[in-house]
Each structure stands twice: as C-alpha cells, then as structure tokens.
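Suppose you are handed a protein chain with no further information: no name, no annotation, nothing but its sequence. What can you learn? This example shows the usual starting point.
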Amino acid sequence: MIRIDQQRTVGSLVPALEKLFDLSAQKIRRIHKTWDPAKGSPVFTVKGAYTSRGWTEWTQGFQFGSAIIQFDVTGEKEALQIGREGTLREMPRHVSHVGVHDHGFNTMSTCGNFLRLLREQKLPPNEWEQYYFELAVKVSGAVQAARWTDVGDHQGYIYSFNGPHSLFADTIRSLRVLAVAHQLGHVLMGEKDRRINLLERLLQHAEATARYNVYFGEARDSYDVCGRVVHESIFNTNDGSFRCPSTQQGYSPFSTWTRGLAWILLGYAEELEFLDTLTEAELDQFGGKKKITQAFASVAGAVADYYIANTPVDGIPYWDTGAPGLASLGNYLDRPAEPFNDYEPVDSSAATIAAQGLVRLGNYLTGKGDTARGSHYLQTGFTVAARVLDPPYLSIDQNHEGLILHSVYHRPNGWDYIPDGKKIPCGEATMWGDYHARELALLLWRMAKNQPYYTFYLK
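A reasonable first move is to predict its three-dimensional structure. Written in structure tokens, the prediction is:
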C-alpha cells in the first residue's frame, strides 16, 4: 500500500520539476537529431536509444507533444520549432488513421496542445493556424467516433485495433479528442446524412468501459475486486452480447495490468473536469449531469483506491498485480518497488499516468466540497510524483534518450529489452512514459506557480 506523504506540497516539487525540464530539453534535442523519420514512430529505448516497434502507430504524437509541453513551461523556441515542424510534417496521416483507437493520444498531444496554447495566448494569434488545428481535431474526433460497435439499447463503444469485438481500457483517454471536437461544434456525419453527436458517443463509450472493464465488488465473477481493471472486454458482434474479459498486455484477464488501470484513472478524472464545464441542459438528454458525474466519480474513486492498496509504499507499481513472479518477492507491497529485482518488472509509465489522475481527481473532489477525499487523492498524487520524478526513475544520464526509466511496453510478448546480466526488463524508457511525465510536470508546475490550470479541453 502506498505510504502517503501528508506533508508534501506542490511547491516542494518545484526543484524536481525544474530538474526534469532541464533534462527534458537535452533529450528532446538529442532525439530530434538522431531519429530517422523513415523508421516510423519511436516507441521505447534499447540500450538508451529510442527504437520503433511495429504494432500500431500510437506514439508519434508523444514525440512532438513532448516538445510542445517543453515550450509551454520554458518558452524554448527550439522546442516550439521541433514540435511545430514535426506536427505539420508527420501528424496529418494520423488525423485520418481509420485503423487505430488512439486519436486522443496522437492528435491531442500535438494539434490539441497547439490549439490550447493559441487559446491561452501563449502563441501569437494566427487565424489560419488556429483553423488548421481546429480542423485536425474535428476530423480526428469524427474518425475516432466512427470506430463504433453498437451493442443495442443505445449502448456501444469505440472498438480497438483488434476489431469490432474488442473494447480496450486505454481508449478512455482518447475520448478527449471527441470532447474537444464537440466543443468546436463538430458532428460525425453518417449514412443518409445522419448527424452523430460526439458527446453522446463519448458518454456511451465511458458507460460501456465502466460496465465491462471496471469491477466494483459486485460478484460479476470470482475475481471481482472493487477497483480492479481488465484490459479488454470481448463481445459477440452478431448480437452485441458481452462474452468475457481478456487482455493484450496484462498477465491475465483476472489480474490488473497497472497501466490499463492508470489509463482508466486519468481518463475518468480529466473527463470529470470537462463535464463540469457543460450545462445541465447539454446533459439532460443523456441522463442528467448529476447522474453522469456521479458515475464517472465512482469509477475514478474505485480504481484510485485499488491503485493505492495494490502498489508498493513509494507509489511505483509492478506491471501487473497478478504477475506470477511477485510471489517470489515476498511482502513487496510493504517496501519500495525494486526495479532491479530478478522476477517482475515495475512500470514507471503507469506511475506517471496514475499520478496525474490522482491529482486531478483530488482537485475535482476538493472543488466539489469533498475536502477529505480530495486531499487524500491529491497527497497521494504528490507522493507518487515525487518518487517517479526522481532517480532511479528520472534519467540523469545525458547519453540516454529516455526521460523516465524502468518503463515497459509489452511484457507478455517479450518486446522489452533485458540488459546483459539481468533477468527482467529494466533501465529503459517509453515514449508515453516520458510524455506523461512531462504532462504531469506541466500540471504540477502550473499549480505551483498559480498559473491557469492545465486541461485538455478549451476554455
């Protein structure tokens, strides 16, 4: 269980944030100089150098989004140039990519961030540039929403790259592209000129994810523990019926892949912030604002509690709560995570994602008057952030292209690099772990400096 530092303040994290962005600038410049775009998207490091891994193109936005966030915090013109040139050159094909469920990752990390900076006047006004990024988000949101499986009774979900039968937990964080496209007044046009509401699709997908990918201790099966998350839910597309839990990147359907849980935690927490900006009238036709926000808060709270209870004391989780080698580590939850052990890898990327979710959930609940729970999650988020933004997780080696070490991609497939003399993956970074560390740091930086609160949606 995480040992929560009740005395930690966001201001106390400023030195760590300054160090992170100093290292971040070096690594962004290094990747920009060494990466060959012909290789596709950088995914994870091997011996300290970023490499690609063909599965789906879902990490390119993190590459250039990292440079955009760097500019946001530091004002570095070189970072802005890297982010802008990369976005204009490489991201258009992702905007109309009909084969992935990752539009919220790719498009919102790049075009969405630029649109936000223009709205915040951190970039000089440029009418045509704003139209360009708005159009990119609109198209991307519509393409994402078109990956739809209808399961009847006004229910459905955005299906994963596995096909129409597959509902992934991580897609919840891609819903933000639907949210902003909806804010911009866009709709998905279907057959016979049917106008498909993007907000409705967002809410229906979130409802399906909560119903099938998150457990609430209601005896759905023998492993129904409140807050547990399953990576994938499988449906019979002939009749829309749910068939079974599954997983692509976790150990089993009956354990929790911790990065999947982190996606759920952050996705629902930030969507709660977005829903708070909508009027009662906008949500009345979908069940009402109170009912919807209570459901989202229930999911976020359940998975947050599970994360806290099933993570070592320092807030860094192992890659899956049911990984078989954990039995050889003894009382591993009662001591800090051990990235150099011989049995199971930790996943620091799950920590960077979960920490942001905890902070956002804490802020949301505090704003609603639930100060006790809000403070609980906020302090937990600060605790996790303090650990993951510090060595041995923060990469201080200037020759290593990664920013956050001890992150893993696909343990079951054996894709992650295992150093000589080691038995498990360790010491390497992932593009999403690095990006989400920067995104977490941006959120904390703005909080510490009393700057406008960082959100994905437009204000």
